[in-house]
Design goal:
single chain, mainly alpha, Potassium Channel Kv1.1, Chain A, 2 domains, 3-stranded mixed β-sheet, 14 helices, 3 strands
Amino acid sequence: MSVMDHFTESGKSSDEIVLNFDKGNKLYVSESLLRYASPVFETMFEQKFKESETREIEMNEEDYNDFFELLLNLHPGKQKPVDEQNVLALVSLAHKYQMDLLLNRCKEKMLDMLHRLEKEKNKESPSERCRAVGNCFEILIKADNTKLEDLSTAAIQVIASFGYTTIIGSPPPVFGQVGTPLRSFSQVASTGTGETNGATAYKEDKQRDVAATIDDPIKQCKELFENIPDDLKVRVLSQRLAFCDKQ
């Protein structure tokens, strides 16, 4: 019997809990496994919520495949490793359900990813550099959402090392350029560009000529920067300025 059968077929555990997901998907899990892995589930069972009394828990807020991946990681007979394909999903679940050991493993994997991605800044292709920065932004967003401050700081440092143009898809703003009104640093951060007329031309020449598809890493990178919270924008741009001061 495979480990996966423990979760997809009923009757494999004497203390079975049924997890109900959207579209009628179900997973069958040992209550002891959930208690051991997560104080959130332990409290849920101890307080005898309606779900624990009926031996079923509604999991409509969770993605079925992501939670299945989590269980494969937790099961002692499988212990599927944290890798680059599953870490972004696992870190959110580990944070939500207070699985500290798994959270630390996810953090270490994302730090390894940042070290690897930082080497991409020397690539000649703008698309390859933007793809790497886009991956760093995804790590930064997860780190911010899961309160991993040291990981957030590491991600910001790597992102800033790539340079302004790669980060936001436009060249640096020229403050005080003749005919261009001065803009504050906070305005640049809140808009994500602070661009001049020349920057607008750059966008038209370098970005709009590229097919506007979801597979366009330059477009993706720009959108990721524009959608992060303003405080993270400020930190990224401040770190970039700090790098420039050292050069």
